[in-house]
């Protein structure tokens, strides 16, 4: 009777959540969105996930919907989706230190899996959300709104920096046996430099927006941070020398020695800034270990990334006279891998507790009499099946992000230019003397989309 | 059995009454602390302080003693990390200044509409030329009112500290001199509750 009740409640609790990522793994839910984005008709991609925004993982779906709309060039609806994600983040911020709903989610994660815990993105996702929202405002013709988002992202960046300094120690301190092996594997995949903790692309975007919207001093600060994370980007180096000269900063001499003198536009030239985003960030995979506890089958599933990272091609921009080569500024996949590495210790603690809870459940339904008489113990089998089926790794992450971001900048004569990225042509893009043309290129694999605005 | 019914009905009544949402009118000048974001109380505090400061500043008092100077209000620059409707702040301030009877205002946000209307009166052929208002008869502003709203936000675990500073200035357009300037500071601290939903 007891076992029957237990199973019945379980069925009830499960039927309520059949549509989110508790049973259907998250990457396979997003696969149709990515397929649409990588087709000639990306307009409907955002709508696939838009319905899920009201659910428990609304934050994640709002991010995906916002980014999908953005890739399709619909900046107005992208802005609305992102606003929902921003609201979800601030709701998390406002939660009490000991939150009953959090405790409830963690408790149910002990019987099912980590996917029942409402999604709360890692730091870099939240920063990128504001960075993309700033671009939405900019492309919608609201530079002041864009700067507000830039400042928000700056605030979060400094929080993340402080957290990184702490977590660097704590991540190392948590190291032991099994965790160690898994973390080392992830560490190798991500690289252990600061570039996998802090996002140079966000710093560069906020810096660039500061610069083109008339706040060169703030731009200089962000560019310097970006250069600390990604020191080998030639365009970033040139920007730093130029701004140091323009603002007569004390670092000017040092920068000049290291990277050569500032290249400045002539009077009639206009500036073209190119941001290139390539591919999609890799999906989390799961690795599952089956084992038995007192004769009952159980599994443990954890999320991981495959270590085989493909190098991303450098972009070649034709149509500006000479071929302009874009240079990588940040690997988003490395950031994702590091974020997972940081989450791993807590996930392992929950995993251990879950194994214990599930083993107890399996034992509680086991019938001693049936075992003695060698009869089939259906309750016990059902419970074991339940335990194995519900054990799903938490594979949620913002999947419509690019794999890598690259930048380039050039001074050209005013006029109309027909750009080509690796032989993919764009509509003519105009450059005006003394103004900046920002060209945002999103390459999803089969399709390349160009968005531009003159500031 | 009867008891059980009563208990059930009572529980249902209590349960339902708690779920009912209601709408109430509140006092528009009441202190609002729904969250730490820029809110009505901040707007009112800024407008009150700025108007009060300007109207009592001795040189401004002297300036308005025999004359009603003409001001135009430039946009207040939003340098915070929140999307704030700064036009609403300037509206409140110019409203109060105008109501004091000491200043006159030119509304730059309506220039386009005015131009369209005058164009219609003069060039459409629909309006009696003797009643049409001619171009070039408006009066130029003597002063410009402008400002900055900036913020510093700090967050650490359970505490969030938001500091706002509103700076406003009145510039004489002829001489470029700043005739008046003041600032209003607001600090809000939010601490998270320990236990909650």
TrEMBL record, chain A:
Parts of the chain that traverse the membrane? none
- Keyword annotations of the record: Signal, TPR repeat
Q: Which domain of life is it from?
A: Bacteria
Show me the TPR repeat boundaries: 200-233
Keyword Nucleotide-binding among record annotations: no
What PROSITE patterns does this protein map onto? PROKAR_LIPOPROTEIN, TPR
**What range does the record give for the signal peptide?**
1-20
Official protein name in the record: Tetratricopeptide repeat-like domain-containing protein
Organism the protein comes from: Shewanella pneumatophori
Automatic annotation (TrEMBL), chain B:
GO terms (BP aspect): peptidoglycan biosynthetic process
Instruction: Name one cellular component (GO) term.
Output: periplasmic side of cell outer membrane
User: Which molecular function GO terms apply here?
Assistant: enzyme regulator activity
Protein name per the record: Penicillin-binding protein activator LpoB
């Amino acid at each position: 009777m007891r076992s029957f009740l237990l199973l019945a409640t379980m069925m009830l609790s499960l039927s309520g959540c059949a549509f989110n990522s508790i049973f259907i793994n998250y990457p396979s839910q997003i696969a149709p969105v990515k397929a649409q984005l990588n087709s000639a008709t990306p307009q409907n991609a955002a709508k696939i996930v838009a319905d899920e925004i009201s659910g428990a993982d609304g934050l994640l779906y709002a991010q995906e919907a916002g980014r999908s709309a953005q890739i399709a060039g619909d900046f107005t609806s992208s802005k609305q989706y992102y606003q929902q994600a921003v609201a979800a983040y601030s709701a998390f911020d406002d939660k009490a230190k000991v939150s009953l709903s959090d405790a409830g989610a963690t408790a149910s994660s002990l019987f099912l899996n980590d996917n029942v815990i409402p999604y709360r993105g890692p730091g870099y996702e939240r920063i990128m959300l504001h960075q993309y929202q700033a671009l939405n405002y900019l492309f919608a013709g609201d530079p002041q709104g864009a700067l507000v988002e830039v400042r928000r992202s700056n605030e979060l960046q400094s929080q993340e920096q402080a957290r990184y300094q702490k977590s660097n120690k704590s991540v190392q301190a948590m190291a032991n046996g099994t965790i160690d092996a898994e973390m080392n594997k992830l560490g190798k995949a991500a690289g252990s430099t600061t570039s996998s903790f802090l996002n140079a692309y966000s710093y560069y975007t906020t810096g660039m927006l500061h610069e083109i919207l008339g706040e060169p001093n703030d731009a200089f600060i962000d560019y310097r941070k970006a250069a600390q994370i990604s020191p080998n980007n030639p365009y970033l180096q040139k920007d730093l020398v130029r701004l140091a000269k323009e603002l007569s900063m004390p670092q000017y001499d040092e920068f000049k020695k290291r990277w050569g003198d500032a290249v400045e536009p002539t009077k009639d030239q206009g500036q073209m800034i190119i941001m290139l985003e390539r591919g999609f960030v890799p999906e989390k995979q799961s690795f599952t270990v089956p084992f038995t506890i007192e004769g009952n089958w159980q599994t443990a599933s954890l999320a991981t990334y495959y270590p085989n990272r493909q190098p991303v091609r450098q972009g070649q921009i034709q149509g500006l006279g000479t071929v302009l080569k874009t240079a990588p500024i940040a690997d988003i996949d490395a950031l994702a891998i590091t974020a997972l590495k940081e989450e791993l210790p807590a996930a392992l603690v929950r995993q251990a507790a879950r194994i214990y809870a599930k083993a107890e459940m399996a034992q509680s339904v086991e019938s001693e009499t049936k075992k003695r008489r060698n009869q089939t113990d259906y309750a016990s089998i059902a419970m074991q099946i339940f335990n194995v089926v519900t054990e799903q790794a938490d594979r949620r992450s913002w999947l419509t992000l690019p794999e890598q971001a690259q930048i380039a900048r050039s001074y050209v004569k005013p006029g109309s230019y027909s750009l080509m990225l690796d032989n993919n042509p764009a509509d003519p893009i105009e450059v005006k003397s003394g103004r900046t043309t920002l060209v945002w290129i999103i390459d999803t694999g089969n399709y390349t989309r160009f968005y531009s605005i003159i500031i | 059995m009867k008891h059980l019914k009563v208990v059930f009905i009572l529980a249902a009544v209590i349960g339902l009454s708690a779920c009912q949402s209601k709408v109430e009118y509140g006092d528009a000048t009441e202190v609002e602390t729904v969250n730490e974001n820029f809110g009505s109380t901040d707007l009112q505090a800024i407008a009150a302080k700025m108007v009060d400061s300007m109207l009592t500043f001795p040189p401004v008092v002297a300036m308005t003693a025999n004359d009603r100077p003409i001001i135009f209000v430039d946009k207040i620059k939003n340098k915070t990390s929140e999307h704030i409707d700064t036009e609403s702040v300037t509206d409140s301030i110019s409203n109060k200044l105008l109501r004091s009877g000491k200043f006159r205002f030119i509304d730059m946000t309506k220039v386009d509409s005015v131009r369209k209307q005058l164009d219609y009166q003069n060039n459409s052929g629909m309006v009696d030329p003797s009643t049409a208002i001619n171009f070039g008869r408006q009066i130029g502003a003597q002063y410009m009112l402008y400002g900055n709203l900036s913020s510093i936000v700090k967050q650490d675990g359970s505490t969030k500290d938001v500091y706002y500073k509103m700076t406003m200035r009145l510039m004489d357009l002829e001489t470029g001199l700043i005739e008046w300037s003041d600032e209003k500071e607001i600090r809000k601290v939010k601490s998270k509750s320990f236990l909650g939903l």
